[in-house]
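Render this sequence as a predicted structure.
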Amino acid sequence: MKLLIVDDEQIEREGMMAILNRAFPELKIEQANNGYQAIEITRMFQPDLVLMDIQMPGMNGLEAIEQIHAEYPTIKFVMVTAFDTFNYVQSALKLGAKDYILKPSKVSEIRATVGKVLKEIEEEREFFTESKIQSEMLEKTLALVETDIVTQLLFDHVHEVHVDMLVEMVEIPSTNEMFVMNVVVPVGTEYTYSRIKEKVRECKSGWMGALYDGQLPIIIFRNPEVSFRSQAILLARDILSIANSEQLAGWFIGIGNVCQSLEQIRQSYQEASIASANKNLPVKYRFFQDVPIGNDIRYEAKLLKKEFSEQVRLGEWDQVKTNVINLIRAYEVEGLDLQHSQQLVLEALWSIWSVMSDIGIETLAPIYSYQTQNFRQLRTETSSLIQEMKQNYEKHYRNIEADTIHQIKQYIMENSQHDISLDTLSRKVGLSPIYISKMFKEKLGVNYIEFLTECRIEKAKKMLGDPEKSIKEITIEVGYHEPNYFSKVFKKMCHVTPREYRKTLLGMKG
């Protein structure tokens, strides 16, 4: 803590300094002999408190306070004066002085007055530090919430109540129209996510998903003041400006069509994924509505192959099979010869096998044991190979899912007071966030946020039985950062507020 004594009488300054050094030995003290010098020293010393004499030659204390306060509004002032008149006191208080000391004063009065203001400064510092920590925690929480909202909207079924509560927490408000941009980035550029987030934050209209497997989905809310294409192109160019000319070849942005609600957002995401399938275009972004349809079957086949990675990771084997069979039909319609078609389909099967290997599933590479005689036979043999890979996939996950679900449940129950995201759970058990979300929902009938909320509310119920604990303390201890939000969640889950629940609980105990 730093203090500045301002007085034109040296003996007064020295006397005050001696008193304060004895009373507050850790206080750093500087002196100024007039108002002008006080302003100069303040700029260098940056005091927390100024003891200011009023009557000084040149610039009086009230004038000095006015100028210092204009530059440094957080500095506190105590007036030191022999003029105990209403006008002086009123002027000093109007300028922000906390108190005044009359000359001469008892040592105990000086100590009490200065001590009171120093304590106030200390309390403000603690409050500011606590507020800053809570603000940083809330900002981190909101980022996790935002990522989870996007992941669940695009890949999982979300309970309506929890979507509503999550959406309320996120800084960027939703609107009636939205679309998805799928940003394809080169794998290994660690700084990419935060840089893209900065660009999305600048436009104040988007929710960022998780960067996974080189792809980043972003839900963008329509700006009614500009056209859809203008809004999307402007943001796409901003994002692409992150990459230098050498990296740009690996970047591409697909843009889905506008939809009318969050329930329809998956359709826009699928469109954005298809639009980003072919990265070898001169312009590094493309709208789904600009993708050629019907004229280039071989290209359409490539779009289907694009979806394999995600479908295998999610265990959507019926869709995998449908896409591969559609590939075969596309080659047949195009008039491609059977041998070449079989080779291209085998390449597609190898891409599926490669994804399985990447996620740790041991299975033999698919091989046709003979050259098929017609397209019908190619479809039959291909279906058989896909069925074999599916069986290996299911066997692998039967072995790990039960243990994984137990691990995740245990981790959530033991750490429910912390901010737990799908990414946190992903690192914990070594599976993709999307797969964890899907598995949790399928095995337990609820998504992980519902389970986490239930754990927190159960803990809160027990704590509410202790009348010594305040609602704010319980809010923080169970993992929420804001009592009003905690009360809202509690009421939605229990149909009563925490205070009403406590009153009932304590009444029953009584």
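Summary. The longest helix spans residues 107-155. Residues 227 and 481 are 38 Å apart (CA to CA).
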